[in-house]
Amino acid sequence: MTASVETTLRSGVEVRLEDLRRRYSGVTALDGLSLTMAPGELVCLLGPSGCGKTTALRLLAGLEEADGGRVLIGGEDVTNVPANKREIGMVFQAYSLFPHMTAMQNVAFGMQLHKVGPAERRKRAGDMLELVGLSAHVHKYASQLSGGQQQRVALARALAIEPKVLLLDEPLSALDARVRARLRDEIRRVQLEVGTTTLFVTHDQEEALAIADRVGVMNAGRIEQLGPPTTIYSRPATPFVAEFVGLTNRLPGVVKGGEVEVRGTRLPLVKPDSSDGAAIALVRPEAVTLASDGDMLPGPLIGTVIATVFLGATSRVTVDLGDITVLAQLPTSDAAALTAGTRVRLSLRKDPVLLARDETAPTEA
Amino acid sequence: MSRSRRAKLQVFRVVTFVLLGAFFLGPIWFMFEFSTRGIGENSPRTLDAWKAIGTYPDLVAGIVASLELAVITSIGVLVVLVPTMVWVRLRLPRLRRVIESISLLPLTIPAIVLVVGFSPMYQWMGTNFSDSILTLSLAYAILVLPYAYRALDAGLAAIDVKTLSEAARSLGADWFTVMLRVIVPNISSALLNAGLLSVALVLGEYTIANNLLYPNLQVEIVSLARTNAGVSIAVAVASLLFAFVLLVALSFVGGQRGVRRRNRERLVQTFARDFSGGTR
Question: Which of A170, A208, B187, B225 has its CA 20 to 30 A from that of A251?
Fold first, then answer.
């Protein structure tokens, strides 16, 4: 980072959302959402469409009013402060550069409103565009920039006003996969350099897990689980989180004595106090290993490979067990020999598993 | 496309252009011809009627009043309509259809019926507020509403009003700044179109002014036609030419802005390509 950028940007502040509530004509978008972000932290809100993640971000930005709850930025209650006085930088999902201004003018716009002098404005705008790698494009209009470049200018514009909080509302969703991955890393690099507390909203789990200090998985207006990406992935707190984040096998089993028996294998439970009876165990593909040698006599964990998908370093293998299919994720070197039709023996790693409601089981009226 | 077909299309275009040109320019030419006739048979062409325009104080007053009305109406309609339409798009999208219907309503009501509605209001205004001809701008604002609405609606539909204004708000802009520095520059063509339509409509309006007894340009032209048809027709031609020149001037201004910007963009692109080697 250039020295000038370093000196002009302020360090992050704590952000707290307390019991936020919002309804839209009878539909609950936020149902008592609470979240505390540490200074300089990047938190991702992850969830399916309609879960309330964008609403939470818009309430923090002041672009919408909450029905209840409080928003605190740096310890100051800003619940009733209008958007233009909250000192928040925001990058939108849609391209939001002002079409009649150049990249430089776009970045300088906010500083002009904050009464920064012309010379200082030009210098800082130049520094910001350099920070996002667009020094060569300062005099271009939005129509002359690619989607990725436009979003980088939007990021520079948001950071140029030295915001207390940076809000990113699915800024990568309109971009193609390659640009997306590159810009994602760039956003993280810039965020770490400037140290601004950042809320990133996305429905893309890969994006959230790759970029965030902590991920908040949202469902029906609430945060179901908030934690570091590794915890969210490897120790999901609820069946919703387990099924939403990453791929999951739904394997029928029977709960007995704090364990679940799945096709002859006893697996520990995340919640050992679950009641006995039929259940669905949620098992990650990485917890399934395959062997194609040795005894292949018919059994509950003997099946046939029906597809292998190459994913780069790993491959995903689909195995037909007769009554169900199971996904296994293996190193590509191990999966190379597992072509369609190969007989394999499955084994399940004894990680604690979550249980999902068995939707096929009869329910009491 | 074959050469013969292209030639046929070209002929069709030229014929259509000539016919339509004759349809629109023919009456104007004959009006001009009439306004330059001398008195008596075989007398030479003269511009006496044109030169006499300035010697009729009532006519000059009518011209000035109509020009003032055109300016006041255009500005008034734009000042009221632009923020309203932006606000409806941002905050009350469900009301868009209602606002559109209300705005288009004057199209369906004949001017003479509007006069019946306006009459009591203007009587009251004349007694309690002002009987200035400039109060006609209120009635004219309603009259030009459908045209201005259509032009502005097309302009606003071409930009993402919500995202642009939210981006500006997050950068610290109040609503006035959002309107003036973000929305207006991006709908400048629509504003010009709406303004031009308003001016043209106000300059040509007769029914309301005549029935409410306000002497605007058209009323004075008709009145003058009874005593000096040559001058009356000369003024009518002049007002048509004025509207035409205004139209061309505004198109030229809009076009020049586009050309200047395109030239600038082209220059920047060339510079970037030649010197920076930047990627998109």
Answer: A208
